Amino acid sequence: MSAKSTAATKVAPLADRVVVKAMEEAETMRGGLYIPDTAKEKPQQGEIVAVGPGRFEDGKRVPMELKNGDKVLYGKYSGTEVTVDGETLLILRETDVLAVIN
After folding, report:
1. 6-24+38-101, what's its fold?
2. Predicted model pTM
3. Structural domain spans, the chain
4. Cα-Cα end-to-end distance for the chain
5. Which of 6, 37, 61, 73 is 20 to 30 A distant from 30 in Cα terms?
6. pLDDT, tens digit (0-9, with 9 covering 90-100), for 6-25
7. Which DSSP category does 13 fall into?
8. Which pLDDT value is given to residue 24?
9. How many angstroms from the chain centroid is the CA of residue 54?
């Protein structure tokens, strides 16, 4: 089986949307304190696992600048969270992506 997620392959975004799998930040415990999941900040970076075909502008399709495998930064409260096969994914527009991490 490939390293790619099977849940992401079941989701095909439309127009200028992308599906992102959030990267979990390493949990650091300062002073031995445990930080529960509910108190952690939402991640703002992830990996693109699916890309839509692009948007229409003046009757022509504008191709996407992003591609599968890109590591990206996005706004903290951008997009819509969905759960597919027990895996949490984020669907957002290409314009909600702030930067690509090289």
Report:
1. 10 Kd Chaperonin, Protein Cpn10; Chain O (2.30.33)
2. 0.76
3. 6-24+38-101
4. 27
5. 73
6. 666 688 999 999 999 988 76
7. -
8. 73
9. 16
Per residue in 24-77, pLDDT tens? 765 555 566 666 666 666 778 999 999 999 999 999 999 999 999 999 999 888
Which amino acid, residue 18? Answer: V
In sequence order, what are the beta bridge partners of 84? Answer: 87
Q: Would you give the DSSP letter of residue 40?
A: S
Q: Both tokens of residue 3?
A: 């390293």
SS (H, E, C) 55-71: EEECCEEECCCCCCCCE
Nearest-10 Cα torsion for 86, 92, 96, 97? 60
Q: Please report the pLDDT score of residue 50 as a whole number.
A: 94
Backbone angles phi, psi at 6, to 5 degrees: -80, -30
Six-digit token string for 19: 């599906």
